[in-house]
Write a structure and sequence with these properties.
This protein is of the alpha/beta class and about 250 residues long. It has 10 helices and 9 strands. Strand 6, helix 6 and strand 7 form a beta-alpha-beta unit. The longest helix is centred in the first third of the chain and has 16 residues. The protein is globular, with a radius of gyration of 16 Å. About 55% of the residues are buried. InterPro entries: Iso_Racemase_Enz_sf (IPR053714), MaiA/AMDase (IPR026286).
Length: about 250
């Protein structure tokens, strides 16, 4: 059985709630192993301090020892601080663990590029300041922001504990007629249970960080999964591999 290692920010609550359920049809152990690393939300550039590098290396070593065949970094720092930062993080993990590595940010940009998506409705659980930085990363990748929604929730727990019925309403309200895809930054909002329903209602894809993390890990392994109950990200087989040198 292949294993996808998930390296999570220390504050993450939401990302590991859905992974085992989504990938039940395939022989991939993705609920475990996991490790956590303490990195700040804002780096303001691609560089990592020695302390932050050491944190990533520690988590990568844990996942390598646990037998991970590929690793995905779940932090939103790549979205907040740009694709160059995400690539820096991925390379540190990759050099340490000796396996293929990507991040939620790089996986997201890769999926949108492969679908030839040009315009998105962007949603974040965080502040308007965070929304602006996320938008900058998307704009730098050549995407147009059709609408921008910042929920301004104070903590990851507050986002993770929102009722899924409310999340569905938020997503429907955040859509724009000009958007080709609804992109939810971060991994905390419980989008996974309602993603397929919202996709049917809007007639367009919905990408959230938690499900993109799973999709990215599967792509790193070259493994397809048919789980249409979890939305369009899990239909159509393998999406050719993403890596830290993409975008």
């Amino acid at each position: 059985m292949q294993r996808i290692g998930h390296l999570l920010p220390a504050t993450s609550l939401g990302a590991d709630r859905w992974v085992a359920q989504i990938c039940a049809p395939v022989q991939v152990d993705i609920a475990h192993p996991t490790a956590r690393a303490l990195l700040p939300e804002f780096q303001y550039g691609p560089a990592l301090t020695p302390t932050h590098t050491a944190e990533l290396q520690r988590g990568a070593e844990q996942l390598a020892q646990a037998g991970a065949d590929a690793i995905v970094w779940h932090g939103t720092s790549g979205g907040l601080d740009g694709a160059a930062h995400a690539r820096t993080v991925a390379r540190v993990i990759e050099r340490t663990a000796g396996v293929r590595v990507s991040t939620v940010t790089l996986g997201q940009l890769d999926l949108l590029a492969r679908a030839a998506t040009h315009s998105i409705a962007l949603v974040t659980a965080g502040s308007e300041q965070q929304a602006g930085r996320l938008a900058d990363t998307c704009l730098a990748a050549g995407l147009r922001i059709a609408s921008l929604t910042a929920l301004d929730l104070a903590t990851p727990r507050e986002a993770a504990e929102l009722p899924v019925s409310k999340v569905r309403r938020i997503l429907l309200d955040a859509d724009s007629a000009d958007a080709e895809c609804l992109v939810v930054a971060g991994t905390e909002l419980p989008v996974a249970p309602v993603a397929a329903m919202v996709e049917r209602e809007l007639g367009k894809p919905v990408h959230d960080g938690a499900r993109v993390a799973v999709r990215t890990g599967l792509d790193l392994l070259g493994t397809g999964v048919e789980s249409p109950a979890w939305g369009g990200l899990f239909t159509g087989g393998v999406h050719a591999g993403v890596c830290c040198d993409t975008h």
